[in-house]
Amino acid sequence: MKPDLEDALAVVDTGNWKQIPLEYGHETLEIAVPRDSVEISMGSVPIIHNWQEEIDKAFSNPIGSPKLEEIIRNKGKRPRDMTASVTVSDITRPVPYKGDRGILGPILRTLESHGLRRENITIIVGTGMHRASTHAEKVQMYGEEIVEQFTILDHDSENKDLLISIGKTKRDTEVYVNKDFSCADLKIATGLVESHFMAGVSGGRKAVCPGLVDVKTIQTFHGPYYLEDPNATNLSLKGNPCHEEALEVARTVGVDFIVNVTLDKDMHLTGVFAGDLVKAHMEAFEMIKAYAKITLERQFDIVLTHGGYVGRDHYQTAKAGVGAIPAVKKGGVIIIAANNRDVEPIGSINYKTLCHLLKLQGPDGFLDLLRHPRWRFTKDQWEPEVWGRPLRIVGEEGLIYCSGEIPEQDCAILPGTSGHEFLMAELQGRSNVERAQAMVQNALIYSMYQVRKRNIEPSVYYIREGPYAVPVFRKSAP
Q1: How many Å apart are CA 469 and CA 305, to the nearest integer?
Q2: Based on the domain organization, do 237 and 119 belong to the same domain?
Q3: CB of 294 within 8 A of CB of 40?
Q4: What's the pLDDT band for 281 if we cut at 50, 70, 90?
Q5: How far is CA 19 from the centre of its chain?
Q6: DSSP string across 391-413
Q7: 347: which of 85, 315, 327, 379 fits an S-S bond (Cβ 3.0–4.6 Å)?
């Protein structure tokens, strides 16, 4: 426990504070914040109530592309002899795949109704370098009926027998792609379009790169040359090396058709975008940009955010830390609540080791190591690298990470300050949610106390949608 936490709790008067809901996975934390705190939220967008009708409409009126059945006819091959591959997202993305409100069933029914045999259709989980999906996760994502009746494979970026070369990109990256997808007669990519802290926006080409490529390509795609580029950030496509490389790879592979969706802050469907790899994806991007981007006229002393659905582990929650950067003052505080409910709440052993290295060396020292000619690229090194972005702004003390799922002893290797340092002894045996709520609440009170010690009345900013909203600080003209 922080040595002066009790002083902070005694001195800071919270009697006039207001309550706000803070998303914590599938739970909600009730946090008291100062009454003048600024709560920002993504713009409103009409939600779709009749999901099936909207999905059917998207298939009937594809963007920049013939209908899927026309693409099948134009292949010049008997449909019963054709192979088809459909790449899908893993459990880390809330894509609506299953049931009557899902996009996967209509794709598969269209293929079968136009002559493709079920045994020639393969569903490939585009894991990139994530772990393979469990059977339970597949059922949760795609539905029991599809799991039982179709072949579903997890991509393995390190299994050379499952990969095939597609040559080199303009940036001289030699790329290998999942053989089952690349060699299929018909290639369909699916996914969710949302802001992305490296590629600008998810969906579209990302289903192939990094979703279905080899480990070395992912290493290049996630290397310092790409990630330290100022254009490799949220809602930025022009000049973004991650976007440009991924798009070139997907075009070379030859994606025939995409089906992407957009969701609002409460995971309601807001759009279905089917058709051409580039044109359909760009329409989704423009829609996301219109309501996810939030322009700020000032920055704040304390920023409160959360990991959202994607924050299943510490690895994925880096998105929330990076997303908060434009809203916080230099030397301020970022408080992150994250329900790290994955079977590995931090991440892989490589990731844990690299986080510890980041903790020991600091963000600049860690980056120097990655750039050293003798550094050997290590799986998952890119997420500790991007954790360095908020650390450069707020420092170790200013990045407070609150997760009830990560044991206190494991937090010692993670960048920033552990939420466990804000727990009173009597709360240690409580539920994960109760402890997380206490961590966040006490961290906020403590941060208020520390800022006031500098004779500053703290300004507090709450990002309702966590990693999905994109604050952008617009500096005033001199």
Answers
A1: 10
A2: yes
A3: yes
A4: very high
A5: 27
A6: HHHHHHHHEEEE-SSS-GGGGGG
A7: 315
pLDDT value of position 310: 83
- pTM (predicted TM-score): 0.85
Kind and range of the H or E element at 451? helix 432-452
- Domain co-membership, 303 together with 417: yes
DSSP code string of 348-383: -HHHHHHHHHHHHHHHHHHHHHHHSTTPPP-TTTHH
Are 277 and 258 in contact by the 8 Å Cβ rule? The answer is yes
Range of the domain at 110: 51-291
Structure tokens at 198: 């490296």
Model pLDDT for residues 26-72, shown as the tens digit of each residue? 899 999 999 999 998 888 889 999 999 999 999 999 999 999 999 99
The answer on 362 and 458 residing in a single domain is yes
What are the strands, taking DSSP E only, across 79-192?
84-88, 121-125, 151-154, 163-168, 174-178, 186-192
| 277 closest CA partner among 252, 261, 257 | 257
* Nearest Cα residue to 217 out of 155, 274, 259, 269: 155
Does 42 map to a domain?
no
Active site residues: 130, 196
Residue 428 resides in a domain: yes
Among 291, 312, 341, give the residue marking a domain's end. Answer: 291
How many other β-carbons are positioned within 10 Å of the β-carbon of residue 115? 14
Q: How far apart are CA 39 and CA 308, in angstroms?
A: 16
